[in-house]
Amino acid sequence: MTSKNTFTATIVFVDDEEFILNMAKRLFSGKFNVITYKSPTQLQNDLGHLNPALFVLDWLMPEMDGLSLCRQIRENHQFDLVPIIFFSGIEPSEQNIIDSLDAGALSFIPKPSAPGFLISQINALVSNYFKSVFYTKQRETILSVARHDMANFMTGVVSGVEMIKMKMSYSPFPNEMTDEIDVILSSAEKLKKILEDIPLLLTNSSEELKEFNFEPVPVPMIIHDAMNFISNSGIEALSDHICDNIVTCNRNILSRAIYYLSRYIYDNLTSTKEKIILKAESDPEFIKFSLIAANFHDSSFKQNIYFTSTTMNFTEKGILPITYVEKALNLHESILEMENNEISTTLFFKLNTTAG
Hints:
It holds the Pfam family Response_reg. By secondary structure, the protein is of the alpha/beta class.
């Protein structure tokens, strides 16, 4: 007897041939929830509402070729783990197969192919997808539990050291060990902040991002928080031209994003560690948050592109800062941009005054 709660995986076919779509339903409807689209546009209209385990794309279609559609799907990080295959009548030449893999597909199946071969390929890809999802969720759960426990322990460390410091003020030797205790307190507070950053780093979907709270915050308060994080990390920076507008945001996440961006810039300064200049300037429609640095160099950065942690060649040291910035700006519906001149480099993002 089948349980009413049995989950059925969804596979999506996009093909302009009705015959192929009917064949897909006939072959797979007994095992999967099969959703079919006759054009890329139809899929694009529904893409934000889908939760598939596999995309099966035709190559040659009237509105848009399958390669372009594949690239668009890959730009949506919601589908990072979801496999894409081409099932197409186009010649399976070496170059076509290379192009399909470069676009983000995992396999190329030529038409016509034996139904058994198509079925075995799709079954294997769907099975591997759920293994990847299970591993990812398991890792996230472990990290989340560990973060919670570590945060509790760190709170205990901070409280305990503060109690010791308070008792020492009544000691005959009040200055003894004060510097060492201050170092312990500072390190514990920094570790506690990193643990608080983990939930954002673990988010993988727009639905998870909705769990973060927004509130109206004066821009100077955001900059003040960011400057505290920056100065506590030993990075030299100064704030300049800070507007007094109010934005709707997650105050902690936005200020931490500015800190992480300054940290990434500081690690990539090519010569003397000159001060980073932080600005927040108002425009009729938005606030422009800028970090300006001389001698900054990273070959991954190119002018006027959308920077993401998956498209840039980061060193291991840079993955955490830029991933946090990417997710924080995604949460605030913004992107990271860059401007260059002969003297300095400016990394900036814009936030609507009514964002959130």
